What does this fold into?
Amino acid sequence: MDRRESIKTMLLGAISVPYVDPRDLELGLEADAEWKSAYPIEQLAPKRKIGGLLRVNDPSFFEAKKGRLVTRHGRFKRHRTAMLPQWEMEQYPYRVRVTIRKQDDRSVSAGLIFGAKTPYEFELGGAETHGALFAYVSPSTLSLRDHRTDGTQVWKDREAGLSSDWERGDTLTLTLSVTAGGSHGMVAAQLEGDASAELPATPVDLGKPDSLTENPHVRGKGYFGVAVDGPGEVEILSLEVDPGPNTPARTGLKPYRRACEWCVIKANREEQFALTFALREAHRTSLRLRQNGRWTDPEFIEGTAEERSGGMTVYTKTVTWAGTRPTRYQLVQGGGSIYEARVPALNKDWQNEREVVGIGVACDEVWRYKQQNQRNWFDNILTEEQWQGQEEAFGRHSDNLGDVGAEYIRYQGSDNDWPDFLFGGDDYPGYPDNPILALSEIDYQQRIWDVLAANDHLRELHGNVPSAFKGGDHEFANATPLQPGGQQGRNYPAHIKNAYEAISLSGYDPVREGEMSYISRPIPGWIEVFHIVTRYNQTVPNDTRKFPDHIDDTREQSASGMKVLEALETWARTSPAPFKIVHSDHPLADIRTISAKETYRLYPWERGKMVRLIAETGLLYAIGDEHNLRMVEYTDFSQAEPTDPRLRPLDDVSIYEFGISNLSGEWFRHVQEDGVSGEGVQYKVHHQTPTESGAAHHGFEKWNGYTVFRFDKTDRSVGFEIWTRHDEDEGYRAKDPRREEPDFATRFSPKSVMWKSSKLPRIDLVNRGLGQEEARYATYSIATSGDDLFSNRADREGRIEDMPCPSVEPGTKVQVEAEGQTFAVETV
It folds into this structure.
C-alpha cells in the first residue's frame, strides 16, 4: 500500500462523525504526501446539508450547492465558522491552510480560526469561556487576531498590508504554521495567490484562565477551521492540514444513523391524528398503520422525496383510516421502519371516566446553555445517536432538557401508563433567546427542534404522547410595530412563521388567519388549552408600565394581541369544557425578585382583562418563561395600581398561577414570599423551586423538572404536581413515579377560581324537560342581557350545583340554555 492509500485508509478509520457519508471520504490520488485533504469540498452533492467532517456555527450561513461551499450572509450574526472536530492539534508543529475566493464587492474578513477549546467554539466575546485565535484576510490586510473575550485581548494583534487589494473573484491561499517556541508556541501566516502577504512567527500568549476549570487558555493548541466575518460572501475552495505529530480522532464520536430525527404526534381526534416529523435528508417515506393485528400496506407521504423551501426536511401528515382505530404507526423508508410508536387511545367524551393526565413543560431549551457554556457545545450536539463527548454533558455544567427526567414521564399516566397529552411553551422545544441566532427554516429544524430527540426517552415521548407546542416571547421579539400582537398580529419574520407553522400548528387551527396562537383540545369539550404566543419588544427598557417617549402605550400595544384576546374571551365564555387552561408566558403581577424588564410584560389594561376573564370563567393559568416550577395563589386584586375598575371588586378571589418551566435557561426566577406585589396585588406562594434569583452557568440540576396536571371528571378537581430531580448528594437522579412521590402536590376545583359575587340556584335539568341521558353531563351556558357569562357541564346526574355566577349580583335573573332548553333563574 503506497502512502496515498495509507492516508485514505487512515481517514476512513478516523472520521466516524455525525452525518457521515461515503462521499466525504473520497480523497483524490493526487493528495500531497504532507497535506491531508480535511474536507473534500469539491465533491459535495448539490444542496446536501452541511455536516460530516465539517461543523458550522449556523448551517443557514453556509450553502453546499453544485459541489461548492459558499457562505450566506446573516441579517445580524455575520460571524460564521466551520470547524473540524476530528482534528485536535495538541502537539507542535502543525500547519493548516485554506483556499478562498471573494464572491462580491462587500467588505469581509475570512481565514482560519485555530486553538479553539472545543470543535465548535465560535463566539467573539460575551462570556469568559469563549473565543479563539484568528488569521484573517481582509480587503487590504493580513492579520492575526485574538478574539477570546471582550476586554481580554492579551495577545497583541499583528497585521501586514497585502500586495494588492483582495477584490471580487480573487483567489487566495492562507497557510498558518504553528511551531514550538516561546512560552506557548509560535505562529506564522503566509498568503499566496492573487494577493500576497506574510506575518513572521510571533509568540502565542497565555490568555485568560478558563472561568470554570481555571485551566490556562493555551490557544495555539486545540481545534481549527474556517472563519468568516462581515457582510461579504466567500467561497471555500479547500481546507487542508499538515498535522505533524497529531492524528485525527478515532473514538468518541459515533456515526449518525437516524433517518428520522424526531416525530411528534398531535391533534388526536376520533377520525384522524397529525404527525410532524423531521428526516435527516429528503427521502421517499411512507406510513403504515397497525390494524386488527396486521400492518397496512405503506402509503407514500407526499413531498418527502424533496426538500421543502428553505432547505427544511420537516413534513406533516394527517393520518386517516377506514375501519377500526389503529393501535400503532410506522414511518417507512425502503421497506424498513425508521420510526414506530403507538396511536394514542381516543378518550371520546371521557366515556371511561378515568383520570386524565397532562404534562406541562417550558423553557426546556438547550441552545442558551450551548451558547453560553462551551462545555455543552457541539461535542454534545443534539443530532447524535446519544449525547456524547465530554462527560459533563449531563453533569454539573449543564442545565438542559435532558435533565428533566424524561425517562420517567412515560409512567405518569393512569396506572403508570403513558400520559394523555403534553403542552410545552416558551423555548420548548428550544428556541434561542433572540431570532438573530436562527435565521432560516433549516436552522430551526436542524439545530433547535432536534431537542425533541436529545435523548432516546424524549424521542420516544413525543411520538407517543399527543403534544401542543407554543412559541414564546423570545421567538417574536423586536418585530414592528412594538407589539405585533396589536390589531394586525401578522408581523412575524417569515422564516420563523414558516417553521413554527410546520412544528406547532400543523393539525391545529390558529384562532385567526395569520396568527400563531391556537386552541388544542386533549378531550374536546372537557379539557381544552388556549395557547397564547406573547410578544414583546426589547426597546422597552423596564416594565410595561413605563414607555420610552417615542413609544405609545395604547391598547393596540398588546403582548397577547387584540384579536387574540377577543378570541380568548369568546372561547372562555362559550366552551363548555370544565377544564380550560390558558397557556401563556408571563405572571399576572410583579412578584419576581429580579429586574422589572424580566418581571412584567402584560400591559395593565391587558392584565385587568385577563384577570377578570379568569375570575368569571374559572380558567387555569399556566405560564412558561418562569424558570421556576411553582404555584402561586392571588387573593386580592382590588388594590392593584394603576387603578382598573374591573379589578376593584376582586377582593375574594383565589386565582391560581402555575409555573411550568424546568429552569433550564440561565435565569432562575425566585418569587417573593407571601405578600403584596409591586402593583398592590395580594398573593400566597404555595410552592416554588429555586431559593434565589439570578443567572449562573451551572449547578442547578436539582431544580430541573416538569409539572403534572391530573383531571378528575367525577368531582371536577385538578391535581397539580411538581417533579424535580433529587438533591445534589444523590447525583440529581430523576424521580420514578412508579415508586416515588412528587416534590409538591395539591388538588383544587376550577370553580374555586371563580369570583363568588353570587351563585346559581340548584338546577335539576331533568326537571327542566331534559331526558336522563340527555341531562347527564349536559352542556349549558349562562347569559345576562344577551351577553354570555360562562359555559360548563352538568354533573353525571344532570344537576348544576354550587356553581358561582361571577359579576352578577344576588337576585339577578340570568338565562340558562341547556341542550336546546332555555329558561331563567334568579341568582342567590
Remarks:
- The mean pLDDT is 76.
- The longest strand covers residues 80-89.
- The chain has ten helices and 45 strands.
